[in-house]
Amino acid sequence: MSHSMQHDRRGLRRLPLALCLALTLSGVSLWSGAARAASNDNNVEWAGLFHDQGPLYDSAPEPTASTPVTLTFRTFKGDITSANIKYYDSADGQYHWVAMHWTANDATGTYDLWQGAIPASSSEKYYRFQINDGTATAWYNAAGITSSEPSSGDFFIVPGFTTPSWMKNGVMYQVFPDRFYDGDTSNDVTNGQYTYAGCATEQHAWGSSVTANVSGCNTAVFFGGDLAGIDQKLGYIKNTIGADIVYLNPIFASPTNHKYDTQDYYNVDPAFGSNATLQQLITDVHSGANGPHGYLILDGVFNHSGDSNCWFGKASYGSITCPQQGAYQSQASPYYSYYTFQTWPGSYSTFFGIGSMPKLDYGASGSATRNQIYGNSGSVMQTWLAPPYGIDGWRLDAAQYLDAGGNNGSDATNHQIMREMRTAVLAVNPDAEILGEYWGDASAWLDDGSEWDGAMNYNGFTQPASEWICGVDESGNSASLTPTQLDNWLHGTRADLPVDVQQTMTNFLGSHDTSRFATRCGGDIWKTYLGLFFQMTYVGTPTIYYGDEYGMQGGADPDNRRTFDWTQATTANSAVALTQKLVAIRNNYPALRTGSFMTLLTDDTHDIYAYGRFDQNNRIAVVLNGTGNTETVTVPVYEESMTNGSQVTDLITGSKYTVSGGNATVSVQGHYGAILAQ
């Protein structure tokens, strides 16, 4: 399989019906607890097959060039006659075979474990398994199980590629700065303080409408939230919630409240504070004295600048004095090459036709624009990564559109820019996070370790979670999923990505670009509970958009950016209390962060979805109830090798259950969950 063939895995979020049925079998309890009656009968029993790249099945999920990778594969006991690893090595463009050997039974005696090793080298590889029982053969890869050899969907081995451990193991809290907390009233934007794009600024009282008094001027509405306010509320983020990663929407100088039209990439907007305020915030986020040691990610708006940026020079506001004319003002400007003009000055490339957001032209490798944004020590990205600031990563806004010549990305130039950007970022901080914004299948930027660490997981979490729990997609359009469809979608989107990328995809219920989750769910706080259970136990980095932890309401932009209600920011609020408990559970159990994921049950009749998360220390069964009714659920926990007579504890209620007949039976409230651990 060529490297390009790996890209065929895209679009696998819904798998073929035959495969869906095969995968669903693994969630059906067909036995009474005795050893499975598997045999060498020229029939591979698909329900017994399992492998992923969790710590029990992959000896080195992030191998170096000198690390061999030992793979473990599970079958029903006595079911197969042989198993092989077949892997493609990008170094020689050839397939290679590794014979596997039986190594052990699992603790229940239900399963055989087979092993084989892929030799160490620096080249990227893709692997699948061939499983044989006499004349019968099954194939198993990341996309699932098939009777004939697959042509795509293999597991990845990417030597030398690592994603930040703190991102894999963290919980992220996203803040839209103007709407979080006003920590310094002296820098509040006042009524009529300035006019931009025909709109005079409006100062609104905290908790009042986000809609402007003047039609069409919503971006001119300010509430006074700032960096000092975030700093003063770090105790809430770190201790009450338990999050250790703070992601800020844009904070650099800009005339609008959202700041996605940057005026000056080197200075914090005066309404948010100063560079010194940011430096203090970073120090306090990093401190372990006010809660867990934390990390800070900034929003990098590098596809376009604002038209008030000195580089462009079309509009002006505030007190910034430009030392030289911008590209809009003079074709002799040193920044003229930063932009693309069709007819200077009036016709130029923009972000989706928004004239106040002229598109940056990245030109060829080594261009002035590339050097300014990321390519040298004085560049924007390196400045904020380096001392005295030391941010921990960048979220890349509209990342697929960065390009040359006014084109809108997703081509060879975009990928070249992203590879150069990664090199530049990691040269300053080898442990920095590079998080791309992309709403679809982002595997083109993620599958070889040369560009992003992860992406905002609209495709692999936000949309399917919303459709299952709320019955609408992330934009509020009617759409629904059964648990089986949900599981197939999630399986396909995980298969698109290397395992360490899966673990850093940001799983959020909503963002600054979607309507609020609570609103999509009709204001039912129990559905927010269910969303929180799912978010905190699934593969990836849980990301809380400020206010979602208490069920903040809000429709489409700008209503999804309401001010934070601080009367709700206490564990007296049941959703906040649940968030605190779920984050603590996640933080206490590495299995929920970097452990295996195994589907245990998809019950479409009762709207139940259950899955296992496990590693060498703990086995956890997560049970999610999508109905409004209390349901008694029988979960086949033997599939996680939980033995009969052993106990599991629901980490939410403290209730204990005994495994019997290979199952744990638990009662789960409507739109709620159970987390059964041993």
From TrEMBL:
The keyword ATP-binding does not apply. Residues 1-37 form the signal peptide. Keywords: Glycosidase, Hydrolase, Signal. It holds the Pfam family Cyc-maltodext_C. It comes from the Bacteria. Residues 174-586 form the Glycosyl hydrolase family 13 catalytic domain. GO terms for molecular function: hydrolase activity. The keyword RNA-binding does not apply. Gene3D superfamilies: Glycosidases, Golgi alpha-mannosidase II, Immunoglobulins. PANTHER family: ALPHA-AMYLASE FAMILY MEMBER, MALTODEXTRIN GLUCOSIDASE. This is Glycoside hydrolase family 13 protein. It comes from Rhodanobacter humi.
